[in-house]
Protein: VOC family protein
Organism: Brachybacterium tyrofermentans
Amino acid sequence: MTQSQVTLGAYNLDASDPHHLAEFWSQLTGGDPQPGGNSVYIAPAGAHGFGMFIQPSDSPRPDRQSSHLDLTVPWGQREQEVDRAVSLGAVVRWHVLDEYPHVQWTTLADPEGNLFCIAEHPPTP
């Protein structure tokens, strides 16, 4: 059996204002926004980054979000990155700091209410 070559090409989001939301996400991830009509593709920031595609939607946001991004930062940098995300327009929703020994995270909402997490994992001995 061959090993899978599956990687994340892009994470897709619907937005009432794709260009405004792309500004937030490009600043947060360091990606390069590339507008195309009403949608915006955000190219990955470097070899280990990921792309995002933000497209227009005029439908109401569902009450329950079925998926979200878990972003990982080096141990000890979660609070700093959460503060940076908030300065860009995110809102802190909750923290999970003591439930699991292998991770702690903060769940936030982007400017349009899409949930995402900023997590850190302790160094392995």
Remarks:
- The two ends are 32 Å apart (CA to CA).
